[in-house]
Each structure stands twice: as C-alpha cells, then as structure tokens.
Amino acid sequence: MQATEDLVRTVVQEVLAHMRNRAPANGKARAWGVFTDVSAAVAGAAESQREFEGRGLEDRRKAVACIRKICTNQAEELGRAELEETKIGRLAHKIEKLQVIADRIPGVEWLRTYAFSGENGVSLEEYAPFGVIGVITPVTHSLPTLACNAINMIAAGNALVCNPHPSGAKVACRGVRLFNQAIYEAIGLDNLITIIESPTLESAQAIFDHREVKLLCVTGGPAVGRAALRSPKRAIVAGPGNPPVVVDETADLDNAARSIVEGGAYDNNLLCIGEKEVFAVAAIFDELMEAMTRYKAVRLDAKQIAALTKAAFAKDDKGHQIVNKELLGQDAAVLAKAAGVTVPASTELLFGETDESHPFVDIEQMMPFVPFVRTPDVDTAIALAKKYEHGFKHTAVIHSRNVDTITRMGREMDTSLYIQNGPSTAGLGSGGEGYLSFSIATPTGEGVTTPLTFTRQRRSTTVKSMRVL
Ligand code: NAD
Q: How far apart are CA 399 and CA 422, in angstroms?
C-alpha cells in the first residue's frame, strides 16, 4: 500500500515538474537565476524566498542536497571551467574545493532549537531567515564560495542575490543555472539563488543599497569589506588575511616543513588562510630550510628572490607597492622562471630567506613563494607574526611542542583561526577537526560561517504551562 502511494506521489511530482519546466506563459525562456539587472534579480529572489519561508525543513534539505550533488558529480568539469576562466590556481584543487562541499559544509542540521524549561513555563529560541541576502564572491574561489554561501543561507531559509567577481562570473552563472534547475525539479522553486551576469562595482553597490536585501555577506579584500561596512545594513565581512607561521626550537621540523608546503602550495597559495610568511628561530632555521626541500619545495637564493620580487610587485600611481596580477596564483615553475631559474613542473612551492621588511612578507601576495625570516628567539618571531598579520585577525599558525609558547601566541594573535602543528587547511577541517566554509568572517567576528550566521534569533515564551515534568 505504502509502495503504491510513494509511486503515485513520485509520478505526480514528475508530471508537475515537467509542466513547470515548460517556458512560462509569456513565452520567455526561464533565466534560472541569471539576471542582467539588480532589480529583477532581487525581485526574483524575494518572490522565491517568500514562498520558501512557508515550506518545511524538508524542502530546505532537498534544495541543499541539489547543490551538494552538482558540486560532487560535476566537480571535474566545473573545476576545469573555473580554472580556464580565472587562469589562477591548480586544477586538482579547483576540483577538490567543489568535492568537499558534499559533506563538509553544514546544512539544516545546524539549526537546533535552544530551550529553557522551569516553573514559569517554557521558552524556545529558534533561528529565522533574514530574507534575501546580498552576496559578493572572490575570484580565488568563485563557484566554491557561491555554493558554500548558498548552502548555508538556503539551509537557514533565505534566498540570495550574488555579484560575483567579474573574472569568475561565467562559472558562477553556470553553477547558478544548474543549482536552480535542480532545485526547481526537486521543490518547484526557481531563483532561490540569483546572480548578476555581468557584474560591476555599480551592480555591487545597487545590491548594497536595495531595500529588499536584508543582510550582506561579502568575501574579498579590503576595498569590498570597507564598501560593505559603509552600507547602512548589517554586513558579514570575510576579509583579507596574511597568515604568518612561527616555528620554534621545540618543533617537529619535518612536520613543520611538510605542513608549510601543504598549506602554502594549496591552489598556488590562493587560500586566504594559506601560509604566507614564516618566522623561524635561528637555532633551527637552517635545518627547517633543509627539511622543506624534502617536500618538493625549491629554495631560491638572494639573487633569484630579487629577480622574482621585481617581477611580482609593481607600484601604483600613489607609489604604493602592489601585487603584479600576472603572477598571482601561478604555478611555482612559472614563478621560478621569473626568478631566472628552471625547476621541475612538479615543484609545489618556492621559498627562500628574506628580511622582515620584504614585500613578500608584508603584502598578502597569493603566490607559491613563501619567505622565511630568521629571528633570534620565539618572542621576536611572535611579535613579527603579529606585526605582519596587520591586525586582520584572520589566521595564524605555529609549530612548537611548548604549550606555554603555543598559548602565548594564541593570545597575542587573537585571530579567527589558530592552527598548531599542522597545515593551515587543517583549520577548515582538512586533516583537522571541524567543518568548512569558504567565508571566514574576520573583521565582523562571526568566524567560520554556518547556517546560523544567516539567521535571526527569535524567542517564543509560554507562561506557566507546557512544562510537563
Ligand atoms: P577582491 O577584493 O579583488 O574582490 C572580491 C570581490 O569584491 C569581487 O567580487 C569584486 O568584484 C568585489 N569588489 C572589489 N571592490 C569592490 C568595491 N569597492 N565595491 C563592491 N565590490 C567590490 O578580492 P579577490 O582577489 O577576488 O579575492 C582575494 C581576497 O579575498 C584576498 O584578500 C583574500 O584574503 C580574501 N578572501 C577572504 C576570505 C575569507 O573567508 N575571509 C575568503 C576568500 C578570499
């Protein structure tokens, strides 16, 4: 009997999905979330969200499952498309960043009701959606950030409108089309995720200013963070970092070297959490440098570092040093060429000794070259780590077996992520405990974002009843 009912339900759902899938009455093809203008995108998302808010949690689970499934099944082709469009990073990691979305990004299960029960009755604290959320995504992980934000936000009952980075917009739009088509098949709603096809700074501003957009979530560098914080609405800002690594004389140097290569080389150092500069004490400095070469890292000498620096940085019109985008996220072998040396194509990372005032230390450069600075003692190393993290409060790493040192650095740095004795990626659940997000809200303090980040807390109180004890 149950089997027959299930069969009938499935057939009815398929027929309805087929009917809905036909072009609308006005004859126009469905946009599947991709819009040329902000007002239409926000209107589409708002209409969809109003309907979605009335649905049960099961529909949220189904919508989230659609995104996870596409990221898993089409990781290879979407990862390749992202690399071809953005031209930065590494194919294997573009694919992996989509695959991990399947099980490491938290969903509906994160929304647990908090309850109080006593002689005065019962109160429930629950997590309600905001409505439509404005989203800005970076070029470093265009589709992974969008998919991750969409899972978190939809799990919490919201819809979103995204202004992607212009250099990663095509793959983001392709993902949005696929997600909306699958969600439509599953629950009959289109436009839970909308996106601007040709994004500009003006379309970003229009999203910031739109009165139907209730909350912002921006992931990117300092300029977009400042722009979002100037908006009168609440902004969750996943801002820049410049993660330092401290290595002291008690560290397991082999593990330290392996970890620095693993985290610093990931996607050619495009991760905001990736190891960007190392401060190592003099007592173990040479041994650590030697250990690096065991993990497909190649050491550059002073002349080669000078040549690479000349190629990697330029001056803007105000005379400030800026990163040469041509080398951003390129393979170590490409950087080596700019340094005047040929290395095997399989080289993971370049590294070399610099002084602390070097631009590779000071600037968040997102290239697979990591500068190592020799320090007289661990306190100097921690002080320099703090100085060059620039107060972003993003990520810091230490390799040490001294519990007091580990504790002191954790307190000093005050960062959103603090990793001890592993690669930075362990801080997002890859080889370390915990879940993943591609948006780590640093200046605004929400940390590694989850569905709860995108909710309003509401309390419901029943006086003198419902406590059945
Ligand atoms: P970016 O700042 O150049 O661009 C990010 C996004 O902001 C893009 O969509 C861009 O079009 C938009 N944007 C830039 N200036 C803007 C403005 N004034 N108004 C409105 N929109 C604006 O950064 P990117 O190169 O794409 O990404 C790398 C940066 O993002 C790094 O600084 C990295 O640390 C940071 N990042 C942080 C996290 C995190 O979770 N905290 C995650 C990924 C990347």
A: 8
